[in-house]
Amino acid sequence: MTRAAVLGSGSWGTTFAKVLADAGTDVVLWARRPELAASVRERHENPEYLPGIALPERLTATADAAQAVAGADVVVLAVPSQSLRDNLSAVAPTLPRGVVLVSLMKGVELGTTKRMSEVIAEVADVPASQVAVVSGPNLAREIASGQPAATVVACTDLDVAQGLQSSCTTAYFRPYTNVDVVGCELGGAVKNVIALATGMAEGMGFGDNTKASLITRGLAETGRLGAALGADPMTFAGLAGLGDLVATCSSPLSRNRTFGERLGRGATMQQLLGQRSQTAEGVKSCVSILELARKHDVDMPITEQVVAVVHEGGTPAAVLRSFMTRSTKGELG
Questions:
Q1: Domains along the chain?
Q2: End-to-end distance of the chain based on CA atoms, in angstroms?
Q3: Which residues are catalytically annotated?
Q4: High-pLDDT (> 70) share of the chain, %
Q5: Which of 160, 166, 319, 331 sits CB 3.0–4.6 Å from 305 for a disulfide?
Q6: How far apart are CA 159 and CA 153, in angstroms?
């Protein structure tokens, strides 16, 4: 693989483009706004999302998506999950034949309850074996600054996963392969919802016992949904499961955790949505994840309570009481 296009110039898209370039791949980053593309191309910086981070010379940028994907061996999708269908539909006719499509997104589509890889395969009209997923404890700013991190590259075709693995291995970024795309995607999507809940607990002044309990029980409900959808349970003990969950629930760099923390401190949804500059994926995806769970008769009480706060007017204090007063059960039941 010698050329990659990354569609989406937010913090994670730009960071992954940097990883690919540092690993020796020529990369074109697509930015919706021409002025941002010009900054990446001419100043080698994304001042809006990664200010102060120097980008590699072999990473360039354009505001023309068709130009970005022309001749690419790999096309990486790093747009907000709920806008994936529209963004990919616009560029799908120009995708090179046989190109590997890579999802960096962590969400479940509203309305269809499809995972991002399923949306990609449908819109691009390609087999699942041509779609890969990158997921793990990957806080963009830390990786962009060269701090060591690991991730999972998942694809139903192990050869494809291994090819992508070799294209994004650097001294600071270590990818592992997996063929369990379902488990990797569910781990990445549900952790955003659990991070909202953990952030609420932080904002309300609760300590580590509360947060550890939410993280652990959040992992349990992720595992239940995964089991219903045929995921490998071991995936949730790995980087795309527990690793991503802990990082997202613990770090102030996590948009979902920070969003939840502000709710816990008393901010309203209207206030937060009015000031938000980057996407907290769990705010929208919690609804589709809960719908997916109900389709498969899976109990997800933390997700249910997050939906109550974010979309139904509930308060963090009220939903915490509701969660804590549920009827008792066995831990592994």
A1: 3-179 (3.40.50.720), 182-324 (1.10.1040.10)
A2: 46
A3: 191
A4: 98
A5: 319
A6: 11
